[in-house]
Amino acid sequence: MSCRDLILSKIKAVPLEPKALPIIPEFEFEGDLKARFTASIQANKGEVISKEELLSLLDSGVFEKVYSHIEDFSSLTNIKITEDAHHLDNLNLAIIRGQFGVAENGAIWLEDQDMGLRALPFITEHLVIVLDSAHLVANMHQAYGRIGLKESGFGLFLAGPSKTADIEQSLVIGAHGAKSLRVVLV
Amino acid sequence: MSHPIQAAEFLQDQAKSKWHDETLWFVRDKRDKISKSVPEWENLRDLASQIKDNVLANLGVYLEEFEKNAKANNIHVHWAKDAEEHNEIVLGILKEKRCNAIVKSKSILTEECHLNPYLEKNGIEVVDTDLGERIVQFLNQAPSHIVLPAIHLKKRDISEIFHEKLHTEKGNEDPDYLTQAARIHLREKFLSAKVAITGVNFGVAETGEFVVCTNEGNADMGVHLADVHIACMGIEKIIPKRAHLGVFLRLLARSATGQSVTNYNSHFRSPSPGKEIHIVLVDNGRTAQLARPKFKNSLKCIRCGACMNTCPIYRRSGGFSYESTVPGPIGSILSPGIDLQKHSSLPFASTLCGSCTDVCPVKINIHEQLYEWRQEITKALPDRTKSLAMKIANGVFAVPFAYNLSGNMMRGALKILPDSITYSGLNTWGKQRDLPELPKESFKDWYKKNRK
Fold first, then answer.
1. If you average pLDDT over every residue of chain A, what do you get?
2. Mean pLDDT across chain B, nearest whole number?
3. Cα separation, B362 vs B436, whole angstroms
4. Which chain B residue is nearest to residue A110, measuring alpha carbons?
5. B105 versus B437: which is more confidently predicted?
């Protein structure tokens, strides 16, 4: 008997009474989605900024190597993107667009098409996500309702910069991935 | 060694054990605050518990559905009945890819299977990439907590080991500085690894995808740069539908660390062009636990660690005192099912206060199962000293004359006996505790005198 069949037969041999799946109700959400989303991003150690603030940040010249995956800012791209994500190691700033955001926790949904290379939002030193403020949902139930059964090889709820508290519970931003997250609500 | 002996060792360093206790309580407090900010929190716990009940009642069906959908998504699905098979499967893939160095993100399952020493014995360099796990790996230790692997260490310890391994400045204990050093060191490992291993938080039967949650982004740094991703998953991690992720992701991080969600929640459905994803579905005692009606609910666990942070025993004895991969209350009901003899002291490492049950996001009746394991263990491994004491007590309590006499004798004897005898090693209750002041007479004598 294959190992697979052995495991499945062991499970089958256990007498188990049927248990129905519960129905997930609609949970009400009070308050302003945008205000809540902004507060959630801040709690996750990200920042919410305006388009003007982003433009002046880009003008300041602190980011040497920039890649924009969205057309609005594509003129800022100054590196060549290849199929191999290893070349992104020196990237200072990536700009991508998020599909929608979740007010209760600041999570932003991204799929393959939004990132180009899956490594992009992780390997870049700093990350900017542009998000339409009309594309906010209240909670994770609405979020998965919105995703439905859409197919993307990779999907990601990104809610903040890379962080750790593994040294005496002291919070440090920028463990392995992006050292900052700025969300531009438009 | 039994839990009490290990716990005593942990308590030797009073300052450190106090810090451990207070720090975990702080995490528990953060969990309380954030859970109270969600009005439907208790509904979510009920839903999560009911979904997991349904999973356990249909585990085989969901596993087959998961396998079918994952395969359709170009994911290679492997099955392992135990740790040994799991390790062989992983090594087999590495050999086929001619890979001799891997990066690995947090996976309690691979700890349970002792994958690291197995791969190292076979000439593979294993780099744990979660910062806490890398720290304990440098020290040749296991994680002492499933969410906070290095919680037993102080920054001085970490500074010392980083100075030795990463050549950081001697005496520099700044967490920012040390984390940056680890970032540079691990970035190199990420860029050179051909195979990355991760654990799995949830496998979705409906879509054949699986979800991995981290705050550091280390799982993603590993897998997106490597050619091959191996995900190791216990068979109980399956959930029926994608929509159920909404319930579990709302509960997981809030219960674990008091944050609203982990910063990276990655859904792997199919590999990038030219890359491979393998998933290893592991039993290793889970089907045996499923067959134990009193204990099968322990398989509902989503490994948030909330029961550890709240447990008065865990906080004051440290993760290593349990000598099991999963320590704390949930570990104490999982581990006896794997090796009853080895883990026989664990269900007794509890006050049965029930706090673990109260905070569990999937509503496992942990403290009741601890009590049930005690009954099983007493039957299977009778404690001679205790059973002798119980037999004597039985004889004394059954005969009124003997009871009266022994009471008088004890009251007399305890007055004159030196502390070295009263608090000898036989009196485990008296360790760090004083006996209450003795009454002059028994209640019966008092009653006779006062109520004629």
1. 95
2. 94
3. 41
4. B266
5. B105
Show me where the domains of chain A are located.
Answer: 31-185
Q: Which of A20, A154, A159 sits opposite B269 (nearest CB)?
A: A154
Residue A75 has pLDDT above 90, yes or no: no
| Domain ranges in chain B with CATH number 1.10.1060.10 | 295-380
- Interface subset of A 14-43, CB within 8 angstroms of B: 14, 16-22, 24-25, 27, 40, 43
Task: Report the alpha-carbon distance of residue B262 to residue B214 in Å, rounded.
Answer: 6
For B52-115, the DSSP string reads HHHHHHTHHHHHHHHHHHHHHTTEEEEEESSHHHHHHHHHHHHHHTT--EEEE---HHHHHTTH
ipTM above 0.90, yes or no: yes
What is the number of helices (H) and of strands (E) in chain A? 6, 11
Q: pLDDT-derived band of residue B52, with 50, 70 and 90 as boundaries?
A: very high
Confidence of residue B7 (pLDDT cuts 50, 70, 90): very high
Instruction: List, as ranges, residues 86-145 from A with C-beta within 8 Å of B.
Output: 86, 89, 102, 104-107, 112, 117-119, 122-123, 139-141, 143-145
Instruction: Answer yes or no: do A174 and B264 touch at CB < 8 A.
Output: no
Beta bridge partners of residue A109, listed in sequence order: A100, A157
Where in chain B are all domains bearing CATH 3.40.50.10420?
38-284
The predicted model gives A36-43 an average pLDDT of: 98
List of residues 6+ apart from B410 with CB closer than 8 A: none
Q: Which residues contact B321 (CB under 8 A, 6 or more apart)?
A: B3, B6, B7, B9, B10, B327, B349
B163 lies within 8 A of chain A by CB: no
Write the pLDDT tens digit of every residue in B342-385.
999 999 999 999 999 999 999 999 999 999 999 999 988 877 77
Tell me, what DSSP letter sits at residue A61? T
Cβ contact A159:A107 at 8 Å? yes
CATH architecture of B38-284: 3-Layer(aba) Sandwich (3.40)
CB contact under 8 A, A175 and B182: yes
The arrangement of secondary structure in A31-185, i.e. its CATH architecture, is: 3-Layer(aba) Sandwich (3.40)
- Choose the CATH number for B295-380 among 2.60.120.10, 3.30.160.70, 3.40.50.150, 1.10.1060.10: 1.10.1060.10
Residues in chain A: 186
Residue type, A122: F
